[in-house]
Amino acid sequence: MSAEIKQQSMPIKAGAGWKEIPWGGVIPQGGTARAFNVGGWRSEKPVWNREKCINCMMCWLYCPDMAIMVEDGKVAGVDYDHCKGCGICSSVCPPRVKAFEMVPEHE
Amino acid sequence: MTVQPLTVEREELATSGASSEFIEIRWHGRGGQGAKTAALLMGEAASGAGKYVQAFPEYGPERMGAPVVAYNRISDGPIMLHCGIENPRFVAVLDISLANQVDFAAGIPEGGALLLNTSLTPAQAREKLNITNKSIRVYTVDASLISKETIGLPIPNTPMLGALNRVAGLLELEPLLASVRSKLQKKFRNKPEVIDGNVEAVKRAYLEVQGE
Amino acid sequence: MAVNKQSAAESQAMTGNEALAEAMRQINPDVVAAYPITPATEIVQIFSSFHADGLVDTELVLVESEHSAMSAVIGASAAGARAMTATSSQGLALMHEMLYIASGSRYPIVMPVVNRALSAPLNIHCDHSDTMGSRDAGWVQIYSENAQEGYDNVIQAIRIAEHNEVQVPVMVMIDGFIISHGMENVFTLDDQTVRSFIGPFKPRFPLLDVDNPVSVGPVDFTDFYFEHKRQHHEAMVKVKPVILEIAEEYAKISGRKYGLFEEYMLDDAEVAVVVISSAAGTTRYVVDKLRRAGVKAGMLKLRVFRPFPAEELAEALQHVKAIAVMDRADSLSAQGGPLFAELRSALFDLPKRPLTTNYIYGLGGRDVPVADIESVFNDLLTTVSTGVAGPKVRFLGVRE
């Protein structure tokens, strides 16, 4: 890898000048969505109830933001940094289980 | 083999008013008869013998049977011009039945020549086609017959190549045949009979072409 | 015209399209995607026979439009492939949107373009309205006078596009039919020489490098878009010395030397014609004729139109009294053609400016005979003797 190209691999910082960012808009890192906090977009948040949950994993499957945290194959909670509060987890949770409750953000 | 040149000397041509730095040729035929291919073959043969060449057709709607025109420039030095040819010193006609629609002699400068594919003698052809300009020389060769007898098909362009080289005093017979053979060998690797037939056609037309 | 030291017997008689296809065979790109269009069809048609004969290792993708061809080449380039296509006229116009994606993403794609008039009315013959319409698409544009230059330029274009300080796509032009379908002597290099000259492709951020994942084509709003365009601008500034450096290297392997433009009999010229592509050959012929008659005539043939070598052109033309700028495209600004506008601007900072006139010529393949170029020089001589340039924009070879 040439010096020129290495220089192009540095992380992109907000407010960086044109000499400090990679050419052509390429983002030379994987998983950059992790660094982008969208939790502030929520007006309602899903509150998960460990007692009710049957670990059917429907919420994990449907969550568009991969915000359902999993440990050892079981649901472990909601990643509020990346949950936008869309409520999909709550609506796909089986009616007789209802492990999610959507709660207004300000409460 | 020594073959008499049919053409006037280069120096004489140089005073004919047209440019002396290169020879310009125009080909007439019908779509499908191979006028464009004749010009390309001429270019390949001459370049193979160390000449600088141009070969280009005049493009229009491409229809079988419609009049087709193609051109060559041939020179000992690099050719810079990239414009059409208005005053070709040599004009080769693959099909004289085009005479009703095309003026074969158009633009030929004094001392230039018209080579016709026909079984007629030059004098008969001059009369039949009403070519009154005596400063244009007329040559004839039965290229269609030669191609039928050597290649087995009525495709007059390869024999015309032989006749034109003699008329224009371009390539001598041996280098011409060597160049044609080597170009055809690349294209027809698996058909040696095609190569031999075409080379024979070039040779026969070179020897059989008649002047006035 | 780059001068050969070899004899014609070492050349091959090739049409312009054959010469470009041969260059592509020797380059052996990883991916070629294309859609046919007259008069560029033959390039990929001939290349596809090389492909069928197993002479190249290329993945050949035949797509359903030029928009798709450029899209496929962009995808291939992003994946890390050396990718090429070829097109002309309406095909280039259909690609227009994707040209910006290629250049803005900084993919070093090389594309031969056979210059052809744009419809309407429908025309298949040569003029430069197609590529002049893409002049601001962020590609390097290199114009070729003949088949030899087309061949040489395509090989050099690979190095220019892929240069570490450039990383910008390059289009290489030849004139439709006049060059694309005209047979001329072409001196080719051997395969090994071409391959070691271009070297292996080193993509910057190949998507197929799964150990180093990257994102391409991100949304780039008010926060960074401007910075990326500023980078692209800088790349175009850096292209000029890179083109000259690569031309120098190419001269060593080929004996043919190229610049940003060619000056012919220009040093002491009082009148000069500035021209692009095949008409330069005819102009050079007229210059020779005029020189024999004692006229101080010269020519400047522009090779690189993008980036525009403004300072170099001003330097080369500053001593000329009257200049005719030949445009084979009318920008329809009612102020003349694109070359005229840019060249006049380039001359603006000179302390003493040459008198300039624009000639729109050869539209839709209209032939440019020797007599027409002679008439341009006659006009220039009148300009010099009267000191008046006359009408700013003139038309050469159009019927009144």
The fraction of residues assigned to DSSP E strands of chain B is 15-25%
> Percent helix among the residues of chain B?
25-40%
**CATH architecture identity of the domain at 38-107 in chain A:** 2-Layer Sandwich
**Mean pLDDT of chain B, rounded to whole units?**
89
Which class of secondary structure composition applies to the elements of chain A?
alpha+beta
Instruction: Please write the string of helix (H) and strand (E) elements of chain A.
Output: HEHEEHE
Task: Write down the overall geometry of chain B.
Answer: globular
> Which sheet architecture does the biggest sheet of chain B show?
6 strands, mixed
How many helical elements of chain B?
Answer: 7
The CATH topology of chain B turns out to be Pyruvate-ferredoxin Oxidoreductase, domain 3
The largest contact between protein chains, plus residue counts on each side, is: B-C, 25 and 32 residues
Radius of gyration of chain B: 16 Å
Under CATH at level 1, the class of chain B stands as Alpha Beta
Write down how many β-strands of chain B occur, each being a DSSP E stretch of 2 or more residues: 6
Main structural class of chain B: alpha/beta
CA-CA gap between termini of chain B: 23 Å
CATH class category of the domain at 38-107 in chain A: Alpha Beta
Describe the 3D structure.
The complex is a heterotrimer of chains A (107), B (212) and C (400). Chain A has helices at 3-7, 58-62, 88-92; strands spanning 44-48, 68-71, 74-78, 100-104. By secondary structure, chain A is an alpha+beta fold. Chain B has a 6-stranded mixed β-sheet with strand order 2-3-1-4-5-6, with helices on both faces. Helices cover 37% and strands 17% of the residues of chain B. In chain B, helix 2 (35-48) crosses helix 5 (157-168), helix 4 packs antiparallel against helix 7 and helix 5 (157-168) packs across helix 7 (192-208). The model of chain B is unreliable at 8-19 (pLDDT under 50). By secondary structure, chain B is of the alpha/beta class. Chain B is built from 7 helices and 6 strands, in the order αβαββββαβαααα. In chain B, strand 5 (113-117), helix 3 and strand 6 (137-141) form a beta-alpha-beta unit. Chain C is α/β, with parallel strands linked by helices. In chain C, the strands form 4 sheets. Chain C has a 6-stranded mixed β-sheet with strand order 9-11-10-13-14-15, with helices on both faces. Chain C has a 4-stranded mixed β-sheet with strand order 5-7-6-12. The interface between A and C is medium-sized, with 22 and 28 residues. Strand 2 (52-57) of chain B pairs antiparallel with strand 8 of chain C.
